[in-house]
């Protein structure tokens, strides 16, 4: 079989080429290449990479010059010099490590697996996948899942907001019925709000010394703004509090938290202080059912999980290599006309 | 008798393996360990149930034992508790994808069945005349069911204390993300105790009634009874704190665990100074 991969990723290519390619909808890429005679094509387009996988029979191999020319036309820029090209076994191994998250900016991230699946589904529904790409991509998804269940490559969190959300979930479980209180209306506050809303927080309240800014931030996330003076009451309602004001002294004191606890009916309270100087008095962490995390706590958790992910890379690579070799043997058996079976492989849909 | 012994030993082996798999899952990220634990537990449970059925058949071979449960010996009681414990785990934790709690619960099942197969005599004999009573089916059966379910609650309580400590430390390990959330553990523990408590009380009341009918006094059981009342008091206090006062977290978990400790003392140690229940200790051999 002849498999060709063309890629522009965050490591090898300039951002300009990737941006030009990312701007073209995948459907258009597929339609254009189909019109130019390609018969098996999958295009993966994310903010960090653009990749094209083309396959066909040995008698009529995919031509990288033709594909590159088509992509340059689509992107409206000369992206060809930035491209990396791989063939056959190397292309298979590359796709498997992409699916495993080994090629990602944040090693082990799981989003890429969904993006590979979306790319494959789009190509499949456009009628652009044959037996080779079907088996290849189903295999890639299987390898991606296998790596994440059998190694700790995807464990822990890779950013401060995601660590904060993960801790909130360790305290409350699902965030659907929970309320969050955001103190401050700056960039950090907005980032926190975005992550909490993305994880389905039930209710979002914003308090800021300037009411208008609180209102503007709350409106952006269909939340609710409250007056700064009603902070003690808001503290009774909140399950998660994220504080990032520019106040020179603590705005949430131990006395305030203690008063709120008496009215909370035993519910836990998760406080996140990302302000400098601090917004929340440190001693509240000693209270039963109150958990205070400061920016440096969250940062050190991120650093630790990234280090532990790095320790898993070798194990993940081993799986990718073994599965690539297996696939390669299958692809070669296909050419010889005596097809061997891929162990555990999903049945190819033809 | 051979069939019963072989099946129970095999079940004990599978319970141990399941407990080790659960502990392995606790310390690694490997999902396969969790699946292995459930499979091993299910096989162990099936073997154990077959062993218990074989015991029942042997027990009922004596005409005077017909319709009574073989809970009158240490072996029978422990084996029944381990069986109920495994069943409770499969019914409560497994469907909620809380298999990780197996690390805290399954060692109890392995321990109970292990004590039965290794330390107690598996022989069955005709029941002593005063035990040929339907109260025998009710009083110990209800209590041991309650103990087994409460062992599950204790596992949940230990998991909660670990999770709480993880989050309080500000240096949570991988374990923190694999354990269920504090809220989930808290409400699960509350619900399990809320279900087991009426069974515990009913089992005790059946004991009072049986004691009154046979010996004319509800207090005939001595130390064992006093200790049981302490367990009821502790679990009652826990339920009151949890449901009536809405208390959560560490403090209430200590109450729940104290209740279970009292249950353990009642079951194992009270044998030493409680005349009426000494048949459980093997006097019936």
Quick synopsis:
With 350 residues, chain A is of the alpha/beta class.
Given as residue ranges, the uncertain stretches of chain B (5+ residues, pLDDT < 50) are 279-285
Q: What's the β-strand tally of chain B?
A: 0
What is the helix fraction of residues of chain A, given as a range? 40-55%
Which structural class should the secondary elements of chain A be placed in?
Answer: alpha/beta
Distance linking N and C termini of chain A: 16 Å
Strand element count of chain A? 10
Strand count, sense and barrel status of the largest sheet of chain B are: none
Biggest interface, chains and residue tallies: A-B, 27 and 28 residues
Topology order of chain A in helix (H) and strand (E) letters: EHHEEHEHHHHEHEHEHEHEEHH
Q: Shape of chain B, please?
A: flat
Model description:
The complex is a heterodimer of chains A (about 350) and B (about 280). With about 350 residues, chain A is α/β, with parallel strands linked by helices. Chain A has helices at about 15-20, 25-35, 65-75, 90-100, 110-125, 130-150, 160-170, 185-200, 210-220, 230-235, 255-260, 295-310, 315-335, and strands at about 1-10, 40-45, 50-55, 85, 180-185, 205, 225, 240-245, 270-275, 290-295. In chain A, the strands form 2 sheets. Chain A has a 6-stranded parallel β-sheet, sandwiched between helices. A 4-stranded antiparallel β-sheet of chain A has the order 2-3-1-4, sandwiched between helices. Chain A is elongated, with a radius of gyration of 25 Å. Chain B is mainly α. In chain B, helix 3 packs antiparallel against helix 4. Mean pLDDT of chain B is about 85; it is low at about 280-285. Chains A and B meet through helix 7 and helix 12 of A and helix 5, helix 6 and helix 7 of B.
């Amino acid at each position: 079989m002849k498999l060709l991969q063309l890629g522009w990723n965050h490591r090898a290519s300039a951002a300009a080429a990737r941006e030009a390619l990312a701007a073209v909808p995948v459907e258009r890429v597929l339609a254009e290449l189909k019109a130019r005679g390609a018969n098996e094509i999958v295009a993966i387009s994310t903010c960090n990479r653009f990749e094209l996988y083309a396959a066909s029979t040995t008698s009529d191999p995919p031509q990288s010059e033709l594909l590159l020319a088509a992509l340059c036309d689509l992107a409206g820029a000369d992206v060809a010099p930035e491209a990396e090209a791989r063939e056959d076994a190397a292309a298979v191994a590359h796709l498997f490590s992409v699916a495993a998250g080994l090629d990602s900016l944040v090693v082990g991230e799981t989003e890429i697996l969904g993006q590979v699946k979306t790319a494959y589904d789009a190509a499949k529904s456009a009628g652009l996948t044959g037996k080779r790409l079907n088996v290849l991509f189903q295999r890639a998804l299987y390898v991606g899942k296998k790596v994440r269940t059998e190694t700790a490559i995807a464990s822990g969190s890779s950013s401060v907001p995601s660590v904060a959300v993960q801790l909130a979930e360790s305290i409350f479980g699902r965030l659907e019925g929970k309320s969050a209180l955001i103190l401050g209306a700056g960039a950090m506050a907005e980032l926190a709000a975005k992550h909490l809303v993305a994880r389905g927080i039930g209710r979002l309240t914003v308090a800021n010394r300037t009411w208008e800014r609180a209102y503007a931030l709350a409106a952006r996330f269909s939340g609710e703004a409250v007056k700064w003076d009603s902070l003690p009451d808001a503290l009774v309602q909140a399950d998660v509090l994220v504080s990032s004001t520019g106040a020179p002294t603590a705005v949430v004191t131990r006395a305030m938290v203690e008063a709120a606890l008496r009215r909370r009916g035993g519910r836990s309270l998760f406080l996140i202080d990302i302000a400098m100087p601090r917004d929340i008095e440190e001693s509240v962490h000693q209270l039963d059912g109150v958990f205070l995390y400061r920016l440096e706590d969250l940062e050190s958790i991120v650093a630790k999980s990234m280090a532990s992910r790095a320790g898993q890379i070798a194990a993940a690579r081993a799986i990718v290599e073994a599965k690539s070799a297996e696939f390669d043997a299958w692809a070669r058996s296909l050419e010889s006309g005596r097809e061997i079976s891929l162990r555990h492989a999903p049945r190819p849909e033809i | 008798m051979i069939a019963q012994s072989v099946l129970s030993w095999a079940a004990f082996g599978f319970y141990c393996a399941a407990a080790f798999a659960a502990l392995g899952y606790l310390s690694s990220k490997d999902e396969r360990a969790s699946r292995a634990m459930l499979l091993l537990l299910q096989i162990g449970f099936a073997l154990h149930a077959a062993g218990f059925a074989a015991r029942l058949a042997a027990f009922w071979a004596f005409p005077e034992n017909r319709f009574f449960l073989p809970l009158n010996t240490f072996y029978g009681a422990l084996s029944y508790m381990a069986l109920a414990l495994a069943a409770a785990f499969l019914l409560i934790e497994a469907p909620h994808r809380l298999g990780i709690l197996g690390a805290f619960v399954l060692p109890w099942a392995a321990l109970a069945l292990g004590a039965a197969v290794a330390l107690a005599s598996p022989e069955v004999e005709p029941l002593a005349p005063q035990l040929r009573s339907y109260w025998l089916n009710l009083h110990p059966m209800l209590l041991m069911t309650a103990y087994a379910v409460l062992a599950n609650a204790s596992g949940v309580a230990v998991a909660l204390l670990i999770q709480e400590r993880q989050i309080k430390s500000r240096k949570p390990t991988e374990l923190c993300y694999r354990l269920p959330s504090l809220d989930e553990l808290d409400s699960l523990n509350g619900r399990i105790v809320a279900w087991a408590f009426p069974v515990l009380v009913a089992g005790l009341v059946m004991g009072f009634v049986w004691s009154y009918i046979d010996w004319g006094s509800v207090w005939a059981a001595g130390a064992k009874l006093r200790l049981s009342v302490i367990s009821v008091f502790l679990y009652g206090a826990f339920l009151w704190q949890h449901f009536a006062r809405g208390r959560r977290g560490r403090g209430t978990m200590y109450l729940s665990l104290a209740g279970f400790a009292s249950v353990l003392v009642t079951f194992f140690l009270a044998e030493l100074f409680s005349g009426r229940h000494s048949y459980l200790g093997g006097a019936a051999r």
